[in-house]
Amino acid sequence: MKKLPNWLTDKIRMKYFINLFLLLLITTTCMGQIKTLDEYLQQAVKNSPLIKDLNNQILAAQLDSVRIKAGFKPQVTASSTGLYAPVINGYGYSNAITNGQSVNGLVTVSKAFIGKNYLNTQFAGIGLQRDSLRNSIKLSEQDLRRTIIGQYITAYGSLQQQKFNNEVVDLLSKEEDLLKRLTRSNVYRQSDYLTFLVTLKQAQLQLSQARLQYKTDYATLNYLSGVADTTIAEITKPELQRSIAYNRSNSIFFKQYQLDSLRLANSRKLIDYSYRPKLSVFADGGYNSDLTNQYYRNFGTSVGFTVSVPLYDGGQRKLLYKRLSLEQETQRSYKAFFNNQYTQQINQLNQQISEYDKLIIEINDQFKYSESLIKVDTKLLQTGDLKIADLILAINNYLTIKNLLTQNTISRLQLINQLNYWNR
């Protein structure tokens, strides 16, 4: 059997060392840092403009409570008016009406009297608004968590694929050196060596593709988290456990329906209070004069009150009640529909996760056999008792099973992420 030409042997050896050097360099660069899922979740929540907006809306609602309370305190206003209506050649406004001229400057104090229950009802409406905003923050955080965790799982799967391909390249590189020596000793044919070399090159290409995919998925993770960082770091395994929702009434998804029911009930109370009698009093003091006789004595004061009693509104009150009833009916329909979807979604996710658990156990068993076969084949290769075609077939089967295991593990984690999203 002929040996490989020296120039081809040197070229292959040089490419091998270059690839090994680049691999070590990139691995060192990529794995210089280690980041966890919790770090990304904290960064995402911290950088979210939507959550900041909702928190500011809660602060604004608190200011509305203070504003309403201040609105029912005594209100003090200052006002001044002046009037001059000239009569020229008998033409002009009647002096009996205008007095010709007038000026006044008044300070008025007024206060509206309302029942304590009405004020509490208004505060309750603002309180429900704040509770709804707080629940919206939890929903936004939950949506954000699901997105970040989902992308983190995707990036972790790409990282595992990169590590596995790296292991395969290392394995093939070691066997390539052995096979080269055996080929020179005429144990294997040159065609066998070249066939094996093609398999090694394919594995190196797959490693480069896996490395690029991890960079892409990792960059997307940073983008979604609002992290402005272009360096590549290793991420740890996401430790996700299946959560169980024991009481749906405490779920943030059902909480909003409860708040809507309370809001509609509070709106009905506000309608009732708007049709009750209203009393307000006022007092003013200052200067009010027509600037005629003894105008310097026209300083004075006055007090008064106003009472308004709704008698007839054309049936608007009944229409408002009817509108609230329609909203309540719509809200009940949405809640019933969502409850059915929620139950179906939870049951389906639990069933799928259980099926993946069984499938992963089977794949792990098959992976053990494939791994054992690789070990046996490498020993047979050392003695020259192995066909290269059999070794390549075993390696391809090993790759296929490992890829299948990685894909199913990642799919299972994604399903757990979805389940935990709905079970909060």
Ordered list of secondary-structure elements with their pairings:
Elements: H1 6-30, E1 34-35, H2 37-47, H3 49-71, E2 75-84, H4 95-98, E3 101-113, H5 116-184, H6 190-225, E4 234-235, H7 252-274, E5 278-289, E6 299-308, H8 316-383, H9 388-422
Parallel strand pairs: 1-4
Antiparallel strand pairs: 2-3, 3-5, 5-6
Helix pairs in contact: 2-5, 2-6, 3-5, 5-6, 5-7, 5-9, 7-8, 8-9
- Name the quaternary structure: single chain
* Count of distinct structural domains: 2
The Cα radius of gyration reads 40 Å
Ranges with pLDDT <50 over ≥5 residues?
1-5, 24-31
Shape label = elongated
The termini sit apart by: 69 Å
Tell me about this structure.
The protein is of the alpha+beta class. 69% of the residues lie in helices and 12% in strands. It has helices at residues 6-30, 37-47, 49-71, 95-98, 116-184, 190-225, 252-274, 316-383, 388-422; strands spanning 34-35, 75-84, 101-113, 234-235, 278-289, 299-308. It has a 4-stranded antiparallel β-sheet with strand order 2-3-5-6, with no helix packed on it. α2 (37-47) packs parallel to α6 (190-225) and α8 (316-383) packs antiparallel against α9. The protein is elongated and about 135 Å long.
Which features characterize this protein?
424 residues, alpha+beta, Outer membrane efflux proteins (OEP), 9 helices, 6 strands, elongated, disordered N terminus
Task: Describe what is shown at a glance.
The chain is of the alpha+beta class and 424 residues long.
